[in-house]
Amino acid sequence: MSTPADPRAAPTDAFIEAIRRRFPVETEIDRILTRKMRLRGGEGYSPVPMQRLIDGLHSLIEANGTSDFALSRVRWLTGGASKIQVAFDLEWNGVEGGDRRVTPMVLRMEPPESVVETSRQREFELIQALDGIVPVPPCFWVDPDGQHLPYPALVYGFAEGVTRPTNLPTTQVTGIGLNYGPEFRPVLAEQVLNHIGRIHREGAAIAEKLPHYDKAEIGSNASTIRFVNWWRRVWEEDREEDDPLMEFAYQWLIANAPPLDHVSVVHGDCRNGNFLFSEETKQITAWLDWELAFLGDRHQDLAWASQSAFRHRSEDGKHDLIAGLFPSTEFAERYEAASGLSVDPKRMRYFRVLAAYMSVSICAGTGYRVARGGKTHQDIVVAWLAMVSYPLMEQMRTTLEEAA
């Protein structure tokens, strides 16, 4: 007996449209996920020649009105499990003109398929909107559809700093178990609470600068439903096989989605490893990886940061440290003091389920699919994500039991 063809490996228009109808999401997210599916049957990842990227950068910069410039020190950046990143120096007169200067920059670009498929346009808009609110790198140009570069991309300023203390060894990836040590932990924890509290508190004002984000409304659960559907759609597009627990969790999340009590900018991947800091000043220099951000409920960020994968025990063994920074017994109270916003235990239980559901969709769904299709430069990392999906499933099951 022959094995039926996998409809997700080379999806038809009918297959794509059926999923779009079943799981309505934000307008820009729909465009990005639809594009992913329509390109899925294409070639896998192959290294992009550096000269191709240099030529694309020239084209993008010139298209945005700058003609007198020179690129130098163009080099690959390590890290970035979901995106291709290249650093370079730009000699120019700046956006506003003026004295000649050299500005270190970063090109952030999609691979053929990413472990999280997101919008460079949204990331560009949000980083610009957050300038002056929290530390973010300056954002210069965006190529949302890959007209100049091989894939959709943005260019932002190179931010100095480290993601972890250089004197502390680690064998982990993507921030899991990241330990800041007793020297850096207290001062970084205070800054993290202040920064995240600020973007949560000022979400409605920031939202006015974000045309590619669907609006969120107090008293409505529509923004949360769209976010749930985002990850259910990803699961349906990328999974190898169905799983009854994922169906049960989805139905529970839809039935129990709470109405919004405050509009926040939600980072979406709020955790250790997604900010840079200076070891000399102990100050956060930049928040990174805004690609999963949306307008919605702040409890999603709090629940995501609280996941067990991002925790570790304190050196004295007395405390379970959320995001490697906060004793779990103090997290909610300290967040409330810093943000001026409340932490609702019932909402936290709901968004812990949603955080686990999102994690399983990424790891068991997209991690598997991208690794199988050879669509990324980080094949080892995404294959590892697929492997760890089983303990994530168990985490989701136990979290559902607790919430229910």
Helix % is 40-55%
- The whole-angstrom Rg is 21 Å
CATH superfamily of the largest domain: Aminoglycoside phosphotransferase (APH), C-terminal lobe
Silhouette: globular
CATH architecture of the largest domain: Alpha-Beta Complex
Whole-number average pLDDT? 92
CATH C-level name of the largest domain = Alpha Beta
Structural domain tally: 2
Terminal Cα separation, in Å? Answer: 43 Å
Largest sheet geometry:
5 strands, antiparallel
* Helical segment count: 13
Would you count the extended β strands for me? 12
What order do the helices and strands follow?
A: HHHEEEHEEHHHHEEEEHEEEHHHH
Strand content: 5-15%
Strands of the widest sheet, in order across it, are 1-2-3-5-4
Q: Note poorly predicted spans.
A: none
Oligomer category = single chain
What structural class do you assign from the helix and strand content?
Answer: alpha+beta
CATH topology of the largest domain: Aminoglycoside 3'-phosphotransferase, Chain: A, domain 2
Notes on the protein architecture:
There is one protein chain. With 404 residues, the protein is an alpha+beta fold. The chain contains 13 helices and 12 strands. It has helices spanning 13-22, 27-39, 50-63, 120-130, 181-201, 203-207, 222-238, 244-255, 299-305, 331-339, 345-373, 379-387, 389-403; strands at 70-76, 84-92, 101-109, 139-143, 153-157, 264-266, 275-277, 284-287, 294-296, 312-313, 320-322, 326-327. The strands form 4 sheets. Strands 1-2-3-5-4 form a 5-stranded antiparallel sheet, sandwiched between helices. Strands 10-11-12 form a 3-stranded antiparallel sheet, covered by helices on one side. Strand 10 and strand 11 form a beta hairpin. Helix 8 packs antiparallel against helix 11 (345-373).
